[in-house]
Amino acid sequence: QVTHDALIYSTSLNYNPVPTGNPVVVRTSPAAVLVECHYPRRDNVSSNGVKPTWAPFWSTLSAEEKLPFSLRLMNDDWSTERVSTIFQLGEVLHFQAGVNTENHTPLRLFVDSCVATPRPDRSSSPQYAFIDFSGCLVDGQLDDATSTFVSPRPRQDVLQFAVDAFKFAGDSSNLIYITCHLKVSLADQAPDPLNKACSFNKASNLWTPVEGTWDVCSCCEVRSC
After folding, report:
1. In angstroms, rounded to a whole number, what is the distance separating the alpha carbons of residues 16 and 26?
2. Which DSSP string corresponds to 133-153?
3. 163: exposed, middle or buried (C-beta count within 10 Å: 0-12, 13-18, 19+)?
4. Under a CB-based contact definition with an 8 Å cutoff, are residues 148 and 140 in contact?
5. pLDDT in the model for residue 61
6. Does residue 49 form part of some domain?
7. What is written about domains in the entry's comments (predicted)?
């Protein structure tokens, strides 16, 4: 039973004696004893002694249920976060997506999609999806672009990609807002069409994955993953 303050386990100990000896008299009687164990809902509960070095259960649970994702603009050598968000056409935007996996089994990060809009509203128009179809960097197919995922990754929980600067035609504000959808899979799970990072290689005219077999990118060509 769960109450406001406690978690209660209860059971009954039942004693049902079998009459012996003279059937006219009895010397024992049945009994039922209720046993309850009350555990405070806001305390640590364990069958072992709690060691002072243990992290409180509630903080561990909180950390395991939440994944802190990040998306940052980096400087040209990827060493630090870029201070300025102003770019000239002809420059390259260096993005670094990451996730803190400190309290998790190893995870691999993917960028499912990235959409640019002239206003903060993700659903505003016009809009330009430069990563789409569960990890296809479609901007790299354009003749005037060299956009690509960086391979190999620096770590499994980090993914870097470079995109040539652009603006919306006819938009005098020259502002772009970028919204990306990040996700993770288990690091030992093989990449598949829904969990991948694929760039278009103009030299070979083929899609290439950051990791995994070539066939995980085949759906990028037909633009249906």
Report:
1. 13
2. TTTB-GGGGSTT---EE-SS-
3. buried
4. yes
5. 52
6. no
7. The ZP domain is involved in the polymerization of the ZP proteins to form the zona pellucida.
Residues of the domain holding 97: 69-222
Q: Could you tell me which of 74, 154, 142, 57 has the C-alpha nearest to residue 109?
A: 154
Query: Which has the closest alpha carbon to 184: 96, 102, 110, 98?
Result: 110
Could you read off the pLDDT of 49-99 as tens digits, one per residue? Answer: 655 555 555 555 555 567 899 999 999 999 999 999 999 999 999 999 999
- Do 106 and 33 share a structural domain? no
Q: Which of 33, 34, 43 minimizes the C-alpha distance to 6?
A: 43
**Average pLDDT taken over every residue of the chain:** 90
Report the alpha-carbon distance of residue 205 to residue 191 in Å, rounded.
21
Q: Is the peptide bond before 152 cis (omega within 30 degrees of 0)?
A: yes
Query: What is the count of structural domains for the chain?
Result: 2
Residue of 56, 146, 156 whose CA lies nearest to 100: 156
HSE, side-chain direction, 13 A CA sphere, residue 79: 2
**Are residues 13 and 75 located together in one domain of the fold?**
no
Strand partners, 9: 37
